[in-house]
Amino acid sequence: MLWGSRYKYMLFTPIFRHKQPDTSADIKPGEGISFAFGMKKFEELRIVFFGTPEFAVASLKAILEAGANVIAVVTAPDKPAGRGKQIQQSAVKQFAEAHNLPVLQPANMKSAEFVEALRELNADLQIVVAFRMMPEVVWNMPPMGTVNVHGSLLPQYRGAAPINRAIINGDTVSGVTTFRLKHEIDTGGILLRKEVPITLEDNAGTMHDKLMEAGAALLVETVKGIANDTIQEVPQAHIPAEQLRHAPKLTKETGSIDWTKGVVSIQNLIRGLSPYPCAHTILKDKSIKVYASHYHSETPSLPPGQWDTDGTSYLRYAASDGWLYIDELQQEGKKRMAIAEFLRGFRP
């Protein structure tokens, strides 16, 4: 599906939500660790860009339009995808080739052949956006290090699914962070951060697009600051484990709706997984994906997990403290539909 290919890398009635606590280190002029590597103009920096999905394309496009000297792009190998298993190129490769940028596609990033090819590029700086884990021999190679764009306000939501997890947890604020890579995942020194509000209408797809653009702009600002030696690297704040939120990889179990929970929690789960990979439940022994919903907080007349419909305008499920109304869904073997269209062919 188009939605899935775009957002998997990763993308309403009022609900109770809480603001994500700002637990990062304060970034103030004159504090932190300076990049004293021998100053170069922004346009003179030799940059290698690492990335794969569309989220990364926005950052690559932004630094090129700002005048950066991207000498090569590293992306995932071509692979079969879709029902026909046709070979597909990554979004980053397609963009890079359209702009005549050299492309490297290592199957093994520790291979001597790739490491030597990378070393011969003599990069000053590497940038990584939405890419797989990198070995130290790669990220520690250039003198100015490797800068990553992450879709959260670090140190919160370290991990593979920060956009989804923030919405699932009911946060009202997300954001993007640029930082330098180090051994532990998403723990390097913070360079810059930018908050992005999560609105009542947002889901994982809309936040994906907002953070994609915010991250691209922040990356340009970051690289210019590194070039001018006006940016300070600040260690991530240490916060108690009980206050730290994580963003582990999404699984099929993540999306399984637990109807014994409250309607707010279920609504957040649906928003946080829409349009990909989607929350899911069972309707008449068939699985359905739920793309959009709303709820009424009232005492339901049915036990949690039981459903009810008028056959024309609504399909609703009982939760622990209210009704969850399905607005858009996809039943297995069928296309994605608004609820009225679905009910026209549904037999309770």
Task: Explain how this protein is built.
This protein is α/β, with parallel strands linked by helices. The protein has two domains: 2-243, 3-Layer(aba) Sandwich (Rossmann fold); 253-344, Formyl transferase, C-terminal domain (Methionyl-tRNA Fmet Formyltransferase, Chain A, domain 2). 25% of the residues lie in helices and 26% in strands. The protein has nine helices and 19 strands. The strands form five sheets. It has a seven-stranded mixed sheet. The longest helix is centred in the middle third of the chain and has 25 residues, at 204-228. The radius of gyration is 22 Å and the shape is elongated. The chain starts with a helix and ends with a helix. The model is unreliable at 1-5 and 8-36 (pLDDT under 50).
Topology:
Layout (H helix, E strand, L loop, with lengths): L1 H6 L25 E2 L11 E6 L2 H12 L3 E6 L4 E3 L4 E3 L2 H8 L4 E2 L7 H9 L4 E5 L6 H4 L6 E5 L7 E2 L2 H7 L4 E8 L9 E8 L6 H25 L3 E2 L12 E2 L15 H10 L6 E5 L2 E11 L10 E3 L5 E4 L4 E9 L4 E3 H6 L4
Parallel strand pairs: 2-3, 2-7, 3-6, 7-8, 9-13
Antiparallel strand pairs: 1-12, 4-5, 8-10, 10-11, 14-15, 15-18, 16-17, 17-18, 18-19
